[in-house]
Amino acid sequence: MATAKSHVSDVSEDSDSDKYSDTQDAAQVPKKEPCRYYNKAGCKRGGKCEYWHVCKYALQSNCRYGINCKLNHNINGSLNPGADGKHGNRWKPGVPKLTDGRHYQWQLNDGKGWKDIDNDHILEAQYTLPNNKSIKLYNTKYGGVSIDFNRMRVYEKNMRVRRLDDGNTVWNWYCSLSRKWVKYGVKDSKGNPAPVQSYEIERMYQSNPTGSMTFQIGSNFYEIHFKEMQQVGQRKERKVTRRPTYYQKHQGAFLLAVQNLSLNQRPQWQYEGDKGKWHEYKRGPGGCSVSSDDIERSYMQTPSGDMDFTVGTNMYKLDFQAMMQINLHNQGQRNVRRKMV
């Protein structure tokens, strides 16, 4: 792979600005109840069931079986039994793990077996960003190859793609809120702790990737459907995505590969304005303390890190992994992107 160009995803059109909150106008929507079939002999609808797969007596704090109950009691981390409606279903992956010291390896299969993708650290770096839904690889022996990150498939070619790892990848979960991807576990603007952590979701996902997880905010329940990659509340359905934490294989190789993307292009850092228009970071007196080139240098040193800067008297943090600009005073957030121009 000589050249890789990323395609940034179209973010969700959600207009709700409250993190982890779907409570507005909730009284107009019927509240979900525990599934009566799940509480009897097992629900045949599994992950498609519109009711909660939780012990109805546990919700009332009066289950006589206690910890010996065969049904779900963990409201902040409940496991939906999955498509077959049976309890204790566990998924066993068939993808091989790396055992040769590599942390990850991307591969393509053209029908003649799996082959490693060269310089796949570029692909991996783009995959870690939740707002990137696909990437196009140029100058391969197959021509241009476009990969859909969300569905892990190759567009318009009779090929397959997969990502192998050593089993130690740290996965992060994000929810689409107000046209931004927000990592589960992030405190809200008032400093309140999040109702569920990213690692808790990943633990449940590893237990059953076709199941779901339920968590509670006050008297309201929310459910993350792993198969559909959606968070379902009383009023809205939101997209969720799962991306790995970036691990640098070799910084020198990463720098060289990025620098060789194109002799006629250079990376430009931009932030998204209030009306969806993108603006370049520019340093100026009384304005922004960093330029696009300053950000690029910091990014090259630590692609999965962050950097602080000021605009006037306001302090901001630029999170490279989440591709997000954060106001350190009011926790306001804006999408950022790295575009080749």
Automatic annotation (TrEMBL):
PROSITE patterns: WWE, ZF_C3H1. Residues 156-243, 255-338 form the WWE domain. One of its GO terms (molecular function) is NAD+ poly-ADP-ribosyltransferase activity. It comes from the Eukaryota. GO terms for cellular component: nucleus. The keyword Nucleus applies. Residues 30-56 form the C3H1-type domain. A zinc finger (C3H1-type) spans 30-56. It is found in: Nucleus. InterPro entries: ARTD-AVP, WWE_dom, WWE_dom_sf, Znf_CCCH. Keywords: Metal-binding, Nucleus, Zinc, Zinc-finger. Residues 1-26 are annotated as: Disordered. Pfam families: WWE (PF02825), WWE_4 (PF23466). Belongs to the ARTD/PARP family. This is Zinc finger CCCH-type antiviral protein 1 isoform X2. The lineage of its organism: Eukaryota, Metazoa, Chordata, Craniata, Vertebrata. The gene is LOC114432737.
